[in-house]
Each structure stands twice: as C-alpha cells, then as structure tokens.
C-alpha cells in the first residue's frame, strides 16, 4: 500500500489520531516479518485494501528514498543498484527482520556443541526468493546499523550471521517499544556482536578466569567430596559480575545488592566480594567462631565489602538466603528499594543483580511474581539485571524438556518485554559485551534485562553426586572439554596478547595467593561505612524502656489534621461520614474507633519523623473499609492522603495497593525492612489465610533470619483473623503456624482487641529500640464493634498491655472460674456473661501470645485465688489456634489448685465450617462451654 493511501485509510479509521504512530511502527514490523506482530494485528493488516499487485514497499525504503531526494538536486537519480525499489528490496528487509527475530535460535551458544539446533528456513535468502545474481547486488539495508545505507547481499548475510548467530544471540523483537528496539539494534549491529577490547582488558579477563577456575580446583583438592556447588563450567560468571560492578560504578552506582542461590556462591564470596580464603577454608574444616544463633551452611551466607571502581568505591552486599530457589530475588529488590529511597532517588544509585538457575527461573512461581512487580509503583527499582547460570540441565538430572514447556528457560522474561541476551559461556569477550549492553539498557530505560549465560556443570549437582549415571553423553563430552580459561589463554597466545606460558604462571600465582589466605580481589576495599546502620537496635530485649505516652494536646491536633481534606475533594458519602466522625473523635466528642486510632498511631510516628510504608491488597482503603488513608475524589479520581500532609518536615508516608501476590510481596517487604530499620514497614494480607502462599518467607526469613544469619528485621505483618461465618478460607489466619515458629524470642505474635491496643502496639514497634518481626492477628468485625472503642486519654496516656484483666467490677474472692481468651471471642463472652449475670466468672484477655506475658498474666491470676477452673477459650478448632502451642504457658501461671480446661471447636481438618447456621451453633456452644453454661 503506498504511504499516502495508508495515511488516508488511517485517517478514516478508529486507528487514527494519537494511535497512528504506534500503528505505523506495527505495520513496519509487519512488512519486515508478518509473524513478528500479534495475530490479531496480522489479520487487520492482511485485510487492508490492495491498490496494486506489486508487493508492498517497506516504509523504511520510502524514507531512504526521501533522504536521497532531500540531499540531492532535482535532477538527482539514485545510483544504479544502490536501492532496488522493487519486490527484491522488500525481501531483503524481510531477511534482516528474520535474523533479528530468530537469529538467536541458531546462535553458537552451547559450549559443548550438544544442543540440537533447528534449521530456520526464514534465515536462508532462498526462502525470500533471493538467489543467484541477487547475492552480488546492492540493496538498501534500512535501519540495519552495521552499514550506513547499502550493502551487497552476500556481505549482508555474512554480517547478519556474525551479528545474530555467533556467541551472542540477542532476543528482543518481542519488545513493542520502538525506541528500545532501535537502541538495542544499534548497539548490537554496529559492532556485529564482536567487541574490541584493549590488551589490558584481555589480561584482566584472563586473570579473573584463572581465579574462578583456580578456587574451585583448590577446594576440590583440599576438601575432596565436600559440597561446594562448584561454578566450574560457568567460570565466566565471575567476569560478568565484576564487569557489572565496575561499569555500574562508572555510571554512578553507589551500591550493588546481589541475590543468588548456592551454585558458584563460594566463588563469588572469595573472587568478587573479597572474603578471605582462610575464613572459607576454616568453615570447610569445621572451625567456627562463637555465635549466639544456629548459623547456616557456608553456601547460604551473605557478605558485604567495598569494591574500587574508576569513579569511586561501590558497596557490595550479597544477600543471605536459604536453599529455597529464587525466593531471595524479591528480598533483594526490597532491600534495593529501601536503599534507593535512602539515597533520595530510585535509579542508578543502587543496582540489583539477581542470579537464577535455568530450571529454577522457568519453574518457580515467585519468578513470575517478581517480574510482574518490576514496573509496579510500590516495587519498581529502575530495572534489575537478571543473570541465568544456564547449565542446560535441571536440578539434578533433568533434561530441559522435562523442566519447562518453552523453548528457552528465559521466556518468562518476555512477559515484561525484557531483552534477553543468550551468550556462550566459553567466549569471555562475548560475555563482557552482553554484560555491558545489558547494564546500559537497564540504566537507559529503567527496565529489567536478562543475560542467559549458557554453560555447563563440570560436576554433578554437588560434588558427591555422580552425573554419568543419568547424563553419560554430556559428561563424556565435558570430561574431554577444555576449560574456559584454557581456551582463552590459547586464544590470547595466538593473538600475541600474552607470551606462551604466561597463563600457567597466572595459575601458579593464584594458588600461592590462596595458600597465603588473604584477600585475592584487587579491587577490594575496607568498608568506609555501614550501608545500613543497625547499631542503635543491637543488644536490646523486650524490656527495653521506651516512651509510650504522647501529648494529649498534640494528639488532638494531629487527629484534626488527618481528619481534614480539601474542600474541592468530593468524597463518597460513606467516606465523608467516616471523616466527619473522625473530627468528633479528634475533639474528644466521640470515642475512637479502630480506623481512627490506627491512623493516629501513624500520624504520631510521622510527626516524630519516622517513615512509614504500608503495602497490601486494598491497603489504601482497608480491606474491610476502615482505614481510608487514601481519599479518592469522586468526580475526577484525584487522590489525597491526609497522612502525607501533616507538616513540611514530617516522615515519609507511603501506602500502596499491591499486586495480587503474597509470596513475592512479603519477601520484598522483608528485604525492605532489613534495609530500613528506623521506620515502620507493614505488609497486610487481604485475609489472614492468604499468607499461606508466602509461608516460605515466614519459615526461612522472618522466623529464623536472625538466628541463622544475624539479620534483624522489624517487619509488621497484619493478618485479618476471626470467625465470622465466612467459611474455611476466610476465617483463620492460621495462628498456630506462627506460634509453632516462635522460639528464642525471635518474633512477636499479638491479637489486639481495642483501638488503644492497636495504637500502642504500632507505636511500640517503632519507638522501642527492639527490631523483631511482629505478627498481628488483626480484626474484621471488631473494626466497627460498638464496644471496641477507646478514649483519646487511653491513647495518650496508656501503653500496650500484653494481658488485660477483667473490666467489670467483680468480687474477686467470689470468682471460681477464669476464662482466658484472645481476639473477637472476648466480646461474645463478655456479652453473654453480662446477660446471664455471671458474677463468678472473670474474663482475661491475652493480647500478646508470644513472647508469652508470664509475669503480667501471673499477677492478674493471683487476684483470683479461689478460682478452681481456668478455661482457655478459642474460636479455632482444638488442633489449631493457640491451644496446642501455648497450653504449657497457661499451665505455668495457674493459681494453686486450679485446673486448665479447653473450650472451643472440636479438632477439624478444615479451619471452619461452610454453613452459617452450623457456625452460629458452634460459636454459641463454645461460649456457653467457656462460661460453664448448659446448652
């Protein structure tokens, strides 16, 4: 279709106006290669009206012709053969498009040469009806960056093969952004994927390869059979990391945070971060220094150091992580986000690098979750460099066809249109080029980028594994295959860059350095400062004093401020009513409800310049319509956050409605809180049981990170919990799971029952110098319960009570039954006790189940010296809730001669029943049982 006809058609179609540029780019891609565009658009273009039987000219050709015309006098005629303005020219441009789209599929990526490569007919000129004399003709090459304007077809094909089918296979045509695609084309095509490095740089590459190989061989000979998860076969990974750090430093990075599983981790510790070999060897030998916690195996340990770059030192942090594959990635990104915010900007200041296994990146769901978060407002970090150590074999013995349903393990990255650079690990210079382009793309476009380091695994999954049993062909080939270092040393000798024997001398020198035991990284620098200062939060316990009280007058002022919004900010009628009530609460004319007390807690912290970050599904509004920290104007949709408008010098307040994920989001918030100790960081589940999908984060980070790695964390987790008759999936937050994880004073588990309690609990988490996770069983129906209210005086002058005594006036000596409980069931017990006028029953609330308030509860129960029955009442089934995990605590504080009883639902495989009628019957029965009433 001629260009003027195309424009006329667009002007009369629904695709005109602001969309026309986008459609033009799509159409251009269609002309180059119809299969490169979505099938729906392909159908649209196929059905466009045809004005000629001649093939459509690519618009880039028309632009080239116009360029000639603009530069030349009116009598100018393009040189003969310079531009074939006919069907052949279109075919040439389609050939270029085919290489851009599919060249990576036949690239020489496998160091072992075992990978089966399909024949891609579209890469053959004959497929495009280009043959014979065409090969010696000159054609316009459009935007192909290896040539200014025209090339002989034979030379063009050779150039395309060098660019797209060598050691570097670039996969980027799935990207819809034209600027990004053209940027990548220019970088890749301008050098034909063949970089030029100085002799000095090549010397450095060889030294780094020597170190990567040398450490593995040294450990293998000194500690034969010990697990080390060797990097051998993927040695170029060390070069890649060091190049990323150097180049990031040159471009302004101050910190680099790295997350990786165990493959190659020991090598990175010694050869990149500068851990002393002596320290590592002592760990292999079983020597260790005294440590208060349980510690962890050496290939899970983290490390920090400074790395010298031409533009200054870069602080390196290798995240601690368990063997649970890929879970460390969102942890790293959360830490990076906190560090970037501390450095006053999300951008190049802190670079995240995540390292993946080929089977893990395709198989672990948290990878998809993390990719999905990459551009979301709450979680963006200006792009992550993601590296795949692609051993071409699964976890232990699996072939690729058993581990994924896609051609490449990196196809998951296409969901966010990340460019993917597949590179042969045995070509160090191609590895460096891929690294440079990847980092530059990330810094230019603030998006994720993937490097697929195609390599192999010289040993089994671990060094005690025998790989020949299941992969005989591969491992017979590996046994004969020269290492990357050996190949590169030979290459440099042939190029005359190094003298013969120099490579062997480097091997000897590196082994001597390991024998010496000191740092072997030339760029290593002693840390000038801690990136995150945890000093103020060390060596504190639960009894560390803190200032709980807050000025009553200032509290009222803050209440007024956060109850105000601009007059032109029209509110929904229900929200307007809530805010009108809050104004009354701020003036003391109405008791405080849950939402107001919670927002007041945030306001007091912000007023004291603490930062607050609250993330969860529906957290701005509150799942149960109580928080309303974000006000949505009803005519234009503008938002206003009262908590961001307290004063000019307040702390930062950020509240985000998160992506629909639990695992990756909670891991992100954990990482964030480990790098932001001063403020309040909260993750809120939409329903408490949704946290089931993030259980690995609780098990392997929150509950044991301090014991294993010495990593403190003050994250607060809010899990809505309470039996409201909503069925098995919307009742229980699985309280028992968190209590089971509690030991060594590792975290807190609280169930606040009043607005004052949630106010003080949140403030205590920040104002007290203790930094440990807080798990909150937060309420649903209590958010608007008429008895769940507090006065401003209770907020201003009170403190968090780990246990709360009976609130009605009773004759303590007449009390023969004490009911212990937590949460919502308290109000049902109270209402029933009052209606039945049971003056012999006292009801005591335990608001903190761990650390268990032994002293406080003991003091309360001492008052009821005549009590013979102490009942633990819970809504959850007997095998769930607090009963099994906490009854030893209950027994430890019983009054003399008293017996402990259980009142609650019978043991159940399900958390709750599905029928509301049965729920009500069970609820009534457990309340009566607790109070000693007959059915």
Automatic annotation (TrEMBL):
<dbReference type="InterPro" id="IPR005475">
    <property type="entry name" value="Transketolase-like_Pyr-bd"/>
</dbReference>
<dbReference type="InterPro" id="IPR011603">
    <property type="entry name" value="2oxoglutarate_DH_E1"/>
</dbReference>
<comment type="function">
    <text>E1 component of the 2-oxoglutarate dehydrogenase (OGDH) complex which catalyzes the decarboxylation of 2-oxoglutarate, the first step in the conversion of 2-oxoglutarate to succinyl-CoA and CO(2).</text>
</comment>
<dbReference type="InterPro" id="IPR001017">
    <property type="entry name" value="DH_E1"/>
</dbReference>
<keyword id="KW-0786">Thiamine pyrophosphate</keyword>
<dbReference type="Pfam" id="PF16078">
    <property type="entry name" value="2-oxogl_dehyd_N"/>
</dbReference>
<feature type="domain" description="Transketolase-like pyrimidine-binding">
    <location>
        <begin position="592"/>
        <end position="785"/>
    </location>
</feature>
<keyword id="KW-0560">Oxidoreductase</keyword>
<dbReference type="Pfam" id="PF16870">
    <property type="entry name" value="OxoGdeHyase_C"/>
</dbReference>
<dbReference type="Pfam" id="PF00676">
    <property type="entry name" value="E1_dh"/>
</dbReference>
<comment type="similarity">
    <text>Belongs to the alpha-ketoglutarate dehydrogenase family.</text>
</comment>
<dbReference type="InterPro" id="IPR032106">
    <property type="entry name" value="2-oxogl_dehyd_N"/>
</dbReference>
<protein>
    <recommendedName>
        <fullName>oxoglutarate dehydrogenase (succinyl-transferring)</fullName>
        <ecNumber>1.2.4.2</ecNumber>
    </recommendedName>
</protein>
<dbReference type="InterPro" id="IPR042179">
    <property type="entry name" value="KGD_C_sf"/>
</dbReference>
<dbReference type="InterPro" id="IPR029061">
    <property type="entry name" value="THDP-binding"/>
</dbReference>
<dbReference type="Pfam" id="PF02779">
    <property type="entry name" value="Transket_pyr"/>
</dbReference>
<dbReference type="InterPro" id="IPR031717">
    <property type="entry name" value="ODO-1/KGD_C"/>
</dbReference>
């Amino acid at each position: 279709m001629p260009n003027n006809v195309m424009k006329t058609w667009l002007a009369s179609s629904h695709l005109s106006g602001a969309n026309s540029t986008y459609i033009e780019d799509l159409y251009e891609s269609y002309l180059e290669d119809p299969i490169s565009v979505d099938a729906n658009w392909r159908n649209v273009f196929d059905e466009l009206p045809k004005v000629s039987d001649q093939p459509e000219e690519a618009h880039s050709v028309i632009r080239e012709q116009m360029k000639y015309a603009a530069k030349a006098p009116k009598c100018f005629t393009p040189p003969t053969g310079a531009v074939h303005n006919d069907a052949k020219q279109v075919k040439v441009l389609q050939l270029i498009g085919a290489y851009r789209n599919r060249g990576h599929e036949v690239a020489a990526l496998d160091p072992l040469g075992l990978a089966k490569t399909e024949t891609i007919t579209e890469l053959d000129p004959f497929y495009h009806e280009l043959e014979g004399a065409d090969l010696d003709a000159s054609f316009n090459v459009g935007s192909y960056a290896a040539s200014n304007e025209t090339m002989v077809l034979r030379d063009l094909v050779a150039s395309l093969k060098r660019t797209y089918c060598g050691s570097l296979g670039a996969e980027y045509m799935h990207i819809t952004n034209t600027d990004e695609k053209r940027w990548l084309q220019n970088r890749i095509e301008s050098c034909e994927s063949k970089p030029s490095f100085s002799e000095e740089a090549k010397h450095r590459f060889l030294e780094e390869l020597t170190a990567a190989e040398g450490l593995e061989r040294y450990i293998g000979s000194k500690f034969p059979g010990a697990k080390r998860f060797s990097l051998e076969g993927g040695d170029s990974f060390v070069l890649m990391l060091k190049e990323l750090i150097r180049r990031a430093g040159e471009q302004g990075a101050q910190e680099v945070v790295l997350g990786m599983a165990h493959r190659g981790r020991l090598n990175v510790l010694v050869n990149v971060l500068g851990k002393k070999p002596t320290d590592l060897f002592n760990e292999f030998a079983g020597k260790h220094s005294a440590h208060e916690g349980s510690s962890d195996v050496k290939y899970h340990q983290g490390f920090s150091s400074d790395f010298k770059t031409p533009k200054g030192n870069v602080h390196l942090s290798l995240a601690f992580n368990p063997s649970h594959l890929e879970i460390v990635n969102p942890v790293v990104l959360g830490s990076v986000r906190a560090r970037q915010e501390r450095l006053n900007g999300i951008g190049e200041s802190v670079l995240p690098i995540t390292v993946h296994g080929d089977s893990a990146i395709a198989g672990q769901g948290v990878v998809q979750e993390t990719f999905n978060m990459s551009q979301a407002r709450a979680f963006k970090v200006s792009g992550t460099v993601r590296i795949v150590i692609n051993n071409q074999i699964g976890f232990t013995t699996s072939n690729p066809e058993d581990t994924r349903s896609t051609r490449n393990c990196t196809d998951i990255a296409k969901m966010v249109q990340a460019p993917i650079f597949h590179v042969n690990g045995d070509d160090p210079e191609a590895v460096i080029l891929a690294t440079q382009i990847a980092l530059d793309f990330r810094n230019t476009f603030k998006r994720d980028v993937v490097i697929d380091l195609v390599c192999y695994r010289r040993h089994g999954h671990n060094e005690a594994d025998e790989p020949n049993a299941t992969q005989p062909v591969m491992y017979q080939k590996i046994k004969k295959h020269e290492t990357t270092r050996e190949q590169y040393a030979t290459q440099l000798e042939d190029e005359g860059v190094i003298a013969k024997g120099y490579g062997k001398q480097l091997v000897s020198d590196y082994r001597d350095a390991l024998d010496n035991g000191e740092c072997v990284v030339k760029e290593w620098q002693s840390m000038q400062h801690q990136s995150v200062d945890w000093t103020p939060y060390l060596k504190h316990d639960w009894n560390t004093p803190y200032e709980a009280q807050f000025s009553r007058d200032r509290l009222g002022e803050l209440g007024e401020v956060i109850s105000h919004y601009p007059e032109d900010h029209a509110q929904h009628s229900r929200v307007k009513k809530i805010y009108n009530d809050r104004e009354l609460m701020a003036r003391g004319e109405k008791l405080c409800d849950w939402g107001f007390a919670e927002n007041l807690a945030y306001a007091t912290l912000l007023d004291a310049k603490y930062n607050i970050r609250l993330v969860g599904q529906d957290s701005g509004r509150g799942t149960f319509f109580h928080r309303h920290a974000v006000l949505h104007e009803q005519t234009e949709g503008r938002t206003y956050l009262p908590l961001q408008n307290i004063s000019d010098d307040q702390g930062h307040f950020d509240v985000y409605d998160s992506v629909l994920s639990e695992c990756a989001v909670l891991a992100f918030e954990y990482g964030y809180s480990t790098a932001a100790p001063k403020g309040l960081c909260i993750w809120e589940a939409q329903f408490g049981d949704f946290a089931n999908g993030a259980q690995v984060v609780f098990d392997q980070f929150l509950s044991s990170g301090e014991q294993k790695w010495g990593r403190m964390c003050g994250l607060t987790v809010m899990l809505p919990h309470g039996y409201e008759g909503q069925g098995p999936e919307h009742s229980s937050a699985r309280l028992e799971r968190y209590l089971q994880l509690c030991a060594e004073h590792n975290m807190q588990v609280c169930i606040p029952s009043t607005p004052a309690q949630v106010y003080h609990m949140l403030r205590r988490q920040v104002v007290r110098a203790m930094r440990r996770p807080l798990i909150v069983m937060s309420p649903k129906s209590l958010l608007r319960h008429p008895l769940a209210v507090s006065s401003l005086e209770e907020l201003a002058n009170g403190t968090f009570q780990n246990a709360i005594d009976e609130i009605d006036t009773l004759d303590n000596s007449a009390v023969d039954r004490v009911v212990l409980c937590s949460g919502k069931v308290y109000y049902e017990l109270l209402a029933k006790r009052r209606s039945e006028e049971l003056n012999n029953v006292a009801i005591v609330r335990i608001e903190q189940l761990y650390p268990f308030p032994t002293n406080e509860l003991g003091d309360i129960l001492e008052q009821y010296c005549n009590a013979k029955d102490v009942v633990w009442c819970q809504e959850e089934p007997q095998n769930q809730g607090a009963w099994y995990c906490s009854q030893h605590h209950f027994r430890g504080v019983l009054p003399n001669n008293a017996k402990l009883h259980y009142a609650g639902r019978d043991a159940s495989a399900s958390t709750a029943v599905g029928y509301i009628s049965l729920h009500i019957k069970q609820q009534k029965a457990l309340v009566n049982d607790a109070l000693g009433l007959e059915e």
